Amino acid sequence: MRTRGEDSTDERVELKEGEDLEHDLVASATDSISGRVMTASKKPLSPGLRVGAHDRSSYLFSRHVEVDSAGHYRLLVPPGTYGVFVEGDRRGPDAHATAIVLAGKETTLDLVVGPEKGPELVAGRVLDNDGSPSSSAEMSLRAADDQVVGYGRSEPDGSFRLVVVGNQPPVLVEAASGGRRGHAGIADDPENVVVQLAAAASLNGRIVADPLPTSFTVWPGVSVDAADGNRKPVDAAHVSFFGDMTVHAQRFVGARFHLDNLKPGRRSLEVRTEDGRSGKVTVDLRAGEEASIDVALVQNSRVGGRIVSFRRREPVTGVRVTCPQCGGDAQTDERGLFHFDNVVPEETWLEAKTADGYWSVSRTFRVEPEKPLDLADLELRPPRPPPGATGFYPKQEGDDVVVGRVFEGSPAEKAGLQAEDVIVRVDGVPVKSVDDIRNRVVGQPNTPVVLSLRRGGAQLTLTIVRAP
């Protein structure tokens, strides 16, 4: 059990079926990681940077906070060993370090962002395709290997200021506002870059099918009826561009549709109808130009399978199954079975997860038109431990440190560690608390750690090879 507010504590309790449990949690605000995020030359940071911490001991806990205007951060976390990193708006870790947090202690860790060579800051302004300032444009910095090394948005006056948070120098700044896109190289003056956005593209489309759909639901879900005046809407078609969340409907007449403000380039457009048909075409869109396409519809297919438990392979009830091209989510019945009746014919994937998110399974498969597909048994599996983890959870019982849980498929389970084993020593060093365990069992990937244990009345030694 773990609190999620400003104060923090970490405790395990035993819950028995059919019984109520009252348990007091005492939260401590003193277990924390704090410090300052800065560039090597102490330049101010761009807004929106966040610091994250991931628990390397149990790999079940993470926390994120935004860096303040002075570059300071403070993460309230339970005792443990954490990987700490600076992330951009899109959660890409850019700098990381290890922090060991002890009970009742505050750990100080300053983080330096930016490359060893090259600019630490890129600034300038974004102009729309008509020459006016472009506000709230999404900005990104890219290195020579196309890695994104900075994020941000332009201000109302079109200006932007991006701190480089990756470990490589940027060579290009990109900007996007709807379908209008632009980029500029970072030359001798990286703090005075002008990015000019190009005009967006537009598209006229016609659905080819018998019978024709008479109304459309267009991404992001606006319903527009056909305007021919002779028929009532009986079907619906869903039109979307993959990878472009800015697509929206502009007008439909009968079986025709029009989309504008689209990103130029080669795009894959998909149409779906509520009666179980779909169509997909690829089109080349050019900036400032209008393209035209025909979309032929085919009948979708049925996909099903069964979710079974790890190793025992018994059916699991109530598992949520998500499939992006299957028209929604499904849930397994009492036999572990699930199915989707409206799956677009193409290569796609699904993922099944238990309610607690711990057990999961995913599968990639190809669907053919009008051909049902049985995926048979899909076995749920535990998460893979992070590098250097061992995969067990210790708990304090009086003066003893006891194994509370051994995660399935983990290095600890493979080595033979069992719940209720009493840990006496780690690598020959006596341990007296959970903190002693957490501080010693996590280490370099693929390295051994030796546990001296009491199991029942027996003494034994186990060697666990940490996760790669």
Give the key terms:
468 residues; mainly beta; Immunoglobulin-like; 5 domains; six-stranded mixed β-sheet; six-stranded antiparallel β-sheet; 2 helices; 3% helix; 49% strand; disordered N terminus
Commentary on this structure:
- By secondary structure, the protein is an all-beta fold.
- The chain folds into 5 domains: 32-112, Immunoglobulin-like; 121-196, Immunoglobulin-like (Sandwich); 201-297, Carboxypeptidase-like, regulatory domain (Immunoglobulin-like, Sandwich); 301-379, Immunoglobulins (Immunoglobulin-like, Sandwich); 392-465, PDZ domain (Pdz3 Domain, Roll), CATH 2.30.42.
- The protein is 3% helix and 49% strand.
- It has 2 helices and 38 strands.
- The chain has helices at residues 411-415, 434-441; strands at residues 32-39, 50-55, 62-66, 72-76, 80-87, 93-101, 106-108, 111-113, 121-127, 138-143, 148-153, 159-163, 170-177, 180-185, 193-196, 201-208, 215-218, 222-225, 237-241, 249-253, 256-262, 265-273, 277-285, 290-296, 298-299, 301-308, 320-323, 328-331, 337-343, 347-353, 360-366, 373-379, 392-397, 400-406, 422-426, 429-430, 448-455, 458-465.
- The strands form 9 sheets. A 6-stranded mixed beta sheet has the order 18-17-19-22-23-25, with no helix packed on it. Strands 33, 34, 35, 36, 37 and 38 form a 6-stranded antiparallel beta sheet that branches.
- A hairpin with a 2-residue loop joins strand 37 (448-455) and strand 38 (458-465).
- Residues 1-10, 89-95 and 218-251 have low confidence and may be disordered.
